[in-house]
Input
Amino acid sequence: MANRNNVSEFIFLGLTTDQDLQKACFAIFLVLYVAILTGNVLIIATVKSSSRLNSPMYFLLSYLSFVDIGYSSATAPKLIADFLVEKKIISFAGCMTQLFVFHFFGVTEIFLLTVMAYDRYIAICKPLHYTTIMSKSVCKWTMRALWLGAFAHSMVQTLLTLHLPFCGPNEIDHYFCDVHPLLKLACTDTYIVAYVVIVNSGMVSLVSFVLLTISYIIILVTLRSRSSEGRLKALSTCGSHITVVILFFVPCIFIYLRPSTTFSEDKGVAVFYTIITPMLNPLIYTLRNEEVKNAMRKLWRHCNKGTVLF
Output
């Protein structure tokens, strides 16, 4: 405990040390974060306001948007603010809080994308049983299980890191607090903790990715016997899901399914699953979905009428 108290704060090295590039990055990432908030809030509002978007798929989609807001907010605001300061400081408590929130929403998204793939599998391969298997009560209990599982995962990650002794130095070669960069700073043998991280984060990502891949392979095989119109509609929906899965899971597996060694490329790779994927989700799920686009147009017209009346 005495050794751990030697470090009361950490210093991020950030994405870059170039001052001019940091100013450009500030503008770019600010726009990206505003796009994340705007797009995901719009999806939540659209699903909640439309009586036609009441299927389990849209119920899960609205939760995905909520998770994306929380997930990106765990890292993006601090990253954007740090572009404007020379010394990027975060307190020890703030670092542990960021670690917990980041993994909580991150694993929730992993579980949620897996459930969404299962939802598409039932809808396409067993359409007659869809309303029974994916009922509202099942969806609600599934979400509770997701939150509970994510909380347990995040608590394990945070408590293991919290009890490591940090004697100094306190510079984190990253732009947010994550397990691997923190393990490098611990003044003790971190082999067991690193192994738990691989099992707890890396294997969760890998197993979920394998399940997702199997689900979509079965769906694609099933679609061969469908009509061309039904095949195109299902492929459009599944195609958007597969795009999200690749952009999110591949970087996660690269980062977490390996020992506690870190590479200079890790920070750039992390941008994909912390910023890019939450920003692309609204675009991917709306631009390829006519029902969502029609509901958004209706919501827009309703808001315009309300503004005129006001």
About this structure: The two ends are 60 Å apart (CA to CA). The chain has one domain: 10-309. The domain at 10-309 is CATH 1.20.1070.10 (Rhopdopsin 7-helix transmembrane proteins).
